[in-house]
Amino acid sequence: MSQTDPITLTCAPCCWGVDDVTNPHLPAWETVLDQAAQAGFGGLEFGPYGYMPLDAGVVGQALSDRGLSIVAGTIFDDLVSPANRGNLLRQTDEICALITALPAPAIHPGQRYPAPYLTVMDWGHDERDFAAGHSDRAPRLDPNAWAGMIDNIRAIAARAAEHGVRSVIHPHAGGYIEFADEIARLAGDIPADLAGMCLDTGHLAYSGMDPVEALRRYWDRLDYIHFKDIDPAVHDRIMGEHIRFFDACAQGVMCPIGRGKIDYPAIAKLLTQLGYGGYITIEQERDPQNRASVLDDLAASRRFLRDTGF
Question: How confident is the model over 87-143, as pLDDT tens digits?
């Protein structure tokens, strides 16, 4: 879509399997930029901390050479532990300093806050990773641990705001902010003037929620959106297995948009009615060793979304 449209579709390095920066099979970050541009995107997310270099000159030139911009940085780490606060704030400072030094993405009609955003996700807990998608058996944080996580999120959002960056909290399958009760509790504990939300249609559906209803319910907090789709046959199978979230992704639970079970025509109708403006990032997590189909998959997702009204 052109920059004059209310919505611009972007992508993220997780489409190439970039989630764990210690994985030895990740593609070079320049390859991700090359293929994002080749796929017709004008923007993408920065990806997990430690993947792209924290050098505004190097990254800025690489983006400029390819006609790309960065629409969000990412905190993907343990938000629960009070002992991790220093690490979280260091990441916040370094990521925000970098993304604000790069050329700013365009502002769209209806967009509440300018990009780039800081997408904040909890991760790194085996007991929740193996319970991803299973609200009935996933352990919940006790009140003190929950309060500690909220304090960490507040600290991240306040620090990002000092850099002029809007934080958006992203419920993520396999983390301690995943299910309907946790999202509702989070919305009550984090004021809207401090941080918004980035809801992800795929994570919502993976975890037993209706993406259309969730987008409607949290509309007043919705600053940014992720799109993905879920293969129903794979999802049904892996829900019967003891499996980590990204191992499920490696088995193909995320598929090109339009080939899964999420009702994107209903989402398009809702977002049109509500007047959403800004960025929507396409994601399709996978094993980085299975990235040969990335360009075809992204083309299929873009084509379907275009035909659906995005």
Answer: 999 999 999 999 999 999 999 999 999 999 999 999 999 999 999 999 999 999 999
What is the value of pTM for the model shown? 0.96
* CATH number of the domain residue 242 falls in: 3.20.20.150
Residue 2 in domain: no
Domain hosting 194: range is 7-308
Query: 9 with 44: CB under 8 angstroms?
Result: no
Looking at the 3D structure of the chain, how many domains does it have? 1
Could you tell me whether strands 278-282 and 254-255 are parallel, antiparallel, or unpaired per DSSP bridges?
Answer: unpaired
CA 241 to chain centre: 25
> How many of the other CB atoms lie within 10 Å of CB of 51?
18
